[in-house]
Amino acid sequence: MLYFEEACDMRIAQIAPLYEAVPPRLYGGTERVVAHLTEALVEQGHEVTLFASGDTVTSAKLVATRALPLRLDSAPLKSDLASHLTLLHEVRRRAHEFDVLHFHIDLLHFGMFEHMPERTLTTLHGRLDIADLLQVYERWPDYRLVSISDHQRTHLPNANWYATVYHGMSPRGYQYSAQGSGGYLAFLGRISPEKRPDRAIEIAKAAGVPIRIAAKVDEVDRAYFEQRIRPLLDHPLVTYIGEIGDELKSDFLGQARALLFPIDWPEPFGLVMIEAMACGTPVIAWRCGSVPEIVEPGITGWIVDDIRQAVAAVDAVRHLPRARIRATFEQRFTAHAMATRYSQLYWQLVRASRSGHLEGEAA
């Protein structure tokens, strides 16, 4: 067992994707997690340098390798690959300044840092049931990988998994609501086939409860939105708000009777679930991906397998104590808990690097 004092005062590089600012102005999962992790590590006494896009707000040392995040750049033609290569060049140039390089960009860095994998930690934030991934992780087996749920490992069971670390958020950013007096169901995130907003609307209609949808539409999902979802928005129980930022989330989630999370894909984590819990709002989620690891049935919400069960849960969640939901969030999913776990992993890497060997799997 590591004592926290052992893990203090490390020089840590956090390497974020360049698609959104850190934290994002609106939607954005990975960059939001990196923001909360970075702030918590700084508060714990580490010397943190954040490699990210411009428009980033952080108490760490910022190295902005692109003036604007890719999503907010209005340039008609831009290259995410070229932008990330520039980012990686700068990280490699300055790698000697850090004890640990913590990458949040999937596998983009593998070819450039294979001479120093023992000083790196790679958190995989996305889905792993994708063709071609297996051969990459077999080609570069020395990188220590962190999963964000145990289920995420399912499709790459033999990869070099080092630990599972659940996401965490700062409680300061989410206001607890004791009642959820808005009388509506909430859907928050992204309009896409795998997120199943159509299923959320079906649940709300069957339960006879209004639903408010606060979600962005990526261009890749524009046709799906226009053809499949927009026609459903004319129903009197359905209100489409569009994309919202952090300043509106507490009210939107906190006043809801429940968050609907009716996904249809192997969700690696599902950040919106713990955002709802931070507001004291129960979660009704499909039994898919990481959901059984995040939602505790009868405590923070209900896990369902079909529309009938979901409709029943809409009534059942009214009896869940919202103070207990918030308390569960504070016990399991705070940024401090996430940063403490990562700092333990960093120290294990540093200690192993200094001694010339790694002391087994940390998970």
From TrEMBL:
<feature type="domain" description="Glycosyltransferase subfamily 4-like N-terminal">
    <location>
        <begin position="27"/>
        <end position="145"/>
    </location>
</feature>
<feature type="domain" description="Glycosyl transferase family 1">
    <location>
        <begin position="184"/>
        <end position="319"/>
    </location>
</feature>
<dbReference type="Pfam" id="PF13439">
    <property type="entry name" value="Glyco_transf_4"/>
</dbReference>
<dbReference type="InterPro" id="IPR001296">
    <property type="entry name" value="Glyco_trans_1"/>
</dbReference>
<dbReference type="InterPro" id="IPR028098">
    <property type="entry name" value="Glyco_trans_4-like_N"/>
</dbReference>
<dbReference type="Pfam" id="PF00534">
    <property type="entry name" value="Glycos_transf_1"/>
</dbReference>
<protein>
    <submittedName>
        <fullName>Glycosyltransferase involved in cell wall biosynthesis</fullName>
    </submittedName>
</protein>
